[in-house]
Amino acid sequence: MATLRSRRLIRGTAHVRRFFRSWRFGVFSLATVILYHLLLGAILLVPQTASGPLGDFAQDFRRWCLDYDDAQGINPAFLIPLVLGPLMLGLITTAIYGSQWRKVLRRRRAMLHCVAGAAVVVAAVGAGLFLVGINPGETQAPQFPAQRLRTHMQAPDFRLTNQVGQPIAASDFRGDVVVLTGVYARCGATCPLVLAQIKRVTSRLTQAQQAQVHILAVTLDPEHDTQAVLTELAASHGVSPPTFHMLTGPSRDVGTALSQIGILRTWNAERGVIDHNNVFLVLDRDGALAYRFSIGDLQERWMLEALQLLLAETGPKP
After folding, report:
1. How far is CA 39 from CA 29, 47, 119, in A?
2. Segment (H or E) for 289
3. Is 70 in contact with 237 (CB distance < 8 Å)?
4. Which of 46, 71, 301, 308 has its CB 3.0 to 4.6 Å from that of 236, i.e. a possible disulfide?
5. Element holding 274 (H helix, E strand)
6. Across the strands, what pairs with 268?
7. Contacts of 143 (CB under 8 A, 6+ apart)
């Protein structure tokens, strides 16, 4: 019995070795690469306006895998490695097995079996990504600990100028809910994510609620971000007063405001960018600091819930 099993194992191992050494593996690998690119192209072709699970998955794929933002589109630095890796694999496969592929013309059924196997593998990968990508862990996602995270701390106090030349302070909106954050126009990394996240959050509020929320985004680059630059930045993201205020001013005043918000910034000479943390401070109707968030799916969901809770409160207190 043991001898029979050994023989079967030896024969099975021999079949596997022959598969990897033959043109069949070359056809399988190349078909996998081609089908992968077709799958990637199909995801990228899903319209931005698409809704439902497929639309949400496509948007998340662009945002997290390709660093997509509404203003600048797909980041080539993310797209190139994603495409070049499989492309190089395809070229290497062709170089190794290409001389054997003339046999494919005589073994079309075997070739189709290899292509079908590749299609099954790519379909399984695509299905796995889709199932993981659509609201991952939604049923087990942590609930927003509203009471535990709620604070009543003193809010930042500063006055800067928005993109249309109006002097703006958080205290001007006493009685409404205010969100403080920081971005800068030449940021191509997380700043677009910051603006896109708060835009998505506010878009999920009712029109009546939106009228009671004000976003104050302080520039991290006051030397460059003039009112004209911030006007262009706001227009590129489709935001404007009275909800969205891009704030700038003298460097000293801007630095004070950023310190109060809790945003640290450092000039990175090697990369030519400003390194910074990503912060959202949410002020309640009384003008007190209620919540603090960052970027990310969970943080985005919690921030929406926080705004809805704060908007449901009465205020300000006399």
Report:
1. 15, 15, 10
2. strand 288-293
3. yes
4. 71
5. strand 273-276
6. 273
7. none
Amino acid at 178: V
pLDDT at 252 (0 to 100): 96
Cα separation of 54 and 51, whole Å? Answer: 7
- Sketch out the chain's domains with CATH numbers: 2-139 (no CATH), 146-312 (3.40.30.10)
Question: Would you call 163 exposed, middle or buried from its count of C-beta atoms within 10 A (0-12, 13-18, 19+)?
Answer: buried
User: How many other C-beta atoms lie within 10 A of the C-beta of residue 38?
Assistant: 11
Query: Within 10 Å of residue 5's Cβ, how many Cβ atoms?
Result: 9
What is the per-residue pLDDT for 60?
A: 73
Per-residue pLDDT tens over the stretch 104-117: 666 667 678 778 88
Separation of alpha carbons 35 and 117, rounded Å: 11
Q: DSSP H helical segments within 216-296, as ranges?
A: 227-236, 251-261
Residue 134, helix vs strand vs coil? coil
Give the largest Cα separation in the chain, rounded.
90
β-bridge pairing 213-219 and 177-183: parallel
8-22: pLDDT as tens digits = 666 667 666 776 777
Question: What is the residue-averaged pLDDT of the chain?
Answer: 83
Tokens of 169: 């302070």
Place of tokens 């497929």: 54
pLDDT per residue over 175-204, tens digit each?
999 999 999 999 988 899 999 999 999 999
Distance, in Å, from the CA atom of 220 to the CA atom of 215, rounded to the nearest integer, reads: 16
Among 131, 229, 237, CA closest to 194: 237
Residues 53-80 have a mean pLDDT of 68
Report the distance separating Cα 15 and Cα 7, nearest Å.
Answer: 12
pTM here is 0.59
